Amino acid sequence: MKNYQSDPFKGTFGSLENLADKISDVLSCPVTIEDQNHRLLAYSTHEDGTDPARIATIIGRRVPEKVVNSLWKDGVIPRLQESDDPVRVGTIQNVGLGDRVAISIRKNNEVLGYIWVLEVEKQLTSDDMQLLKLAAASAKSQLLQMQIGTKKKEENRQELFWKMLTGNLPQEEHILEKLHELNILPVLPAAVFILQLEEEITPAIEKDILYLAAVNQKINVLLSAADANQMLLLASPVGKEPPLELAKSFVESFFTHMKERFSVSDIKAAYGSLVTSFSHVEKSYKEASSVLAVQEKLGGETLTLNGYHELGIYQFLDAIYEKQQRQSYHNEMIRTLQEYDRQHKTELYHTLETYLTLDENLNKASEVLHIHMNTLLYRLKRISELTNIDMKSPHQKIMIYLDFKMNRLFKQERL
């Protein structure tokens, strides 16, 4: 180790790049500096040794998702988030990660970023570890300087987002101007995502959600806003897969990681259509909201339907319902079942709805209803006798199925 009698990181370095080079010079190891979402801020130059994970981070300007996931699984990131001390990280060969030491850059309990030191030709000593703590203190000052004005910018971004969501900024050119002023790259197509939790979204949970969105790398978040227990994102899918598959993949991994990493479950998620114009963001928002409405009112079988395009016939139930209301429509067959159930305390209505919902699968229906197969067959026979429903007629079954769903969706005892 080089002989330093005082703090070698005191003073102003002018940029994080200069600080990274200084840390590398002092410790004689390659160095990278990241923000709290693992986006690359700076890296040291002119070193000979490196590893695939570091190369990928420099090329992509962010730590690859598979590397972040491995660091979570190995408990590295949780330790960094809880401690001021350096954490030694062993080789993880399957993601190309060599031996390194990391330290969080902190302001009190808030993590501002991370310094990673790659142990290529040497292993850091205890004295090196103390120097790394001094480097983190110096990096904190620079990251805090970078944050000056960030709060005001975020307020401006949220104001712009709400105007787009509510249709109060309909002109595309005006929106593009605002995005340019806020240094937001106007990437299209994009969709509105709604992530709904059971509890109100606190600043800490908001940070966790945006962290997962940034690390996931399936979507690029342009704008975000918290609203009571909902987190709203305007995001563009990123990758070679079809955009809607990327959106679905993000939602699925979001569920998993919120539970595994932050112990948050009971989450609903929805996203609207991908729009090719920012003036249509309101449309995508309304579609995402309608997906949530279907999930909440119909429950079970719809919870896996996250994208508006996945709703199928559910997209049009409100229009069908409005027409039926105008025509004072009632499904007499279903009304007969309701009346029979009331008089005889039976469950024929629920039995038929379950049977049709499960695509007439007798095994699944009997399992869900917790009845024997013979009991189910008896009930179906009784239903046919009471209503004259032709179970071989797709037209009758489709209409009955839709009426079941509208009855639940609109909470109307109208049938």
Automatic annotation (TrEMBL):
<dbReference type="InterPro" id="IPR051448">
    <property type="entry name" value="CdaR-like_regulators"/>
</dbReference>
<dbReference type="InterPro" id="IPR042070">
    <property type="entry name" value="PucR_C-HTH_sf"/>
</dbReference>
<dbReference type="GO" id="GO:0003677">
    <property type="term" value="F:DNA binding"/>
</dbReference>
<dbReference type="InterPro" id="IPR029016">
    <property type="entry name" value="GAF-like_dom_sf"/>
</dbReference>
<protein>
    <submittedName>
        <fullName>DNA-binding PucR family transcriptional regulator</fullName>
    </submittedName>
</protein>
<feature type="domain" description="CdaR GGDEF-like">
    <location>
        <begin position="167"/>
        <end position="294"/>
    </location>
</feature>
<dbReference type="Pfam" id="PF17853">
    <property type="entry name" value="GGDEF_2"/>
</dbReference>
<dbReference type="InterPro" id="IPR041522">
    <property type="entry name" value="CdaR_GGDEF"/>
</dbReference>
<comment type="similarity">
    <text>Belongs to the CdaR family.</text>
</comment>
<keyword id="KW-0238">DNA-binding</keyword>
<feature type="domain" description="PucR C-terminal helix-turn-helix">
    <location>
        <begin position="348"/>
        <end position="405"/>
    </location>
</feature>
<dbReference type="InterPro" id="IPR025736">
    <property type="entry name" value="PucR_C-HTH_dom"/>
</dbReference>
<dbReference type="Pfam" id="PF13556">
    <property type="entry name" value="HTH_30"/>
</dbReference>
